[in-house]
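Bit of a strange request maybe. I'm writing a small parser for C-alpha cell strings and I need a real example to test against, not something I typed by hand. Could someone generate the C-alpha cells for this chain?
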Amino acid sequence: MKHQKLVYWLVGIFAVVFIGGALIIPTPTIKQQVVSIGNAITGNTKTKGATHAVSDSALGEKYQLSTSEIHALRKLKVTGIGDSIMVRTTSDLKQIFGSFNVNAKVGRQVSAAPAVISQLKSDNAIHKNVLVNLGTNGPTSAEEIDSIIEQIGSNHQIYWVNTRVPGKDWQDDNNQLIAAAAKKYSNVHLVDWLYVAQDNDNWFVKDNLHPNSLGEREYTATVGQTMAKTAEP
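Reply from user aminoacidic:
Good idea to test on real output. This should exercise your parser:
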C-alpha cells in the first residue's frame, strides 16, 4: 500500500511539473509577430548557407541540370545581390549552390547596389562568384553598371541576370547595357532570363513580372546552366 501511494505521489508530481512546464512555454509577443509579418510583406532577404535535402538526380530533374552541372554548382560559393525577383527565387537557388548568401530586397534600384556591396565587403561576405539581379525597377546607365562591376572587383566572377519587365520602356535599354557589360568585362557573364522566359507567361503570377513556383524553377535552371559553365569554386 505504501508503495502504491508512493507511485501515485510521484505521478502527481510529474503531472504538476509537466503542466507547469507547458504553461511557461513562451509565445511570440505582438511585437515579434508584427516584425515577422513586416518582413514577409517587404520581402527583405538576408540569408546564408545552402540546404540540399534531395538527391543529385532529383535535383537535376527538378532544375534541368546534368549530373556534372550539379557537381560543379555544389562546389560554388555564391553571393546574391538583387531585387524582388531574387527574393522569390532564393529558396530554389539555395538548393543548387554549395553556399549561397543573399542580400535582396523588394523594389531595389540599381543605384542601391554600391551601399550593399560596401556592406558585404565590410562583413567579408562577398564570395568569388556574384549573382546580380538588378534592373527590374527602373532605368540604369552604363556608368552605373560599370561602377558596380568595378566595385565588386575583377577577382570575382559576376553573373548579371537581365530583366523581363513587360510594358516598361527601360526593359530593353537595361538589357542592352547588361549585355554590353558582359562583352566589355571578361569576368562578367550574361544570364539571359528574358530569352528563356519571354514566351512563357504561365511561369509568372498575375502581375506577369514575378515568377510563380514553375517560373522560380525555370529561373534557377537558367542561372545554374549558365554558371556551371564558367564559375570558379
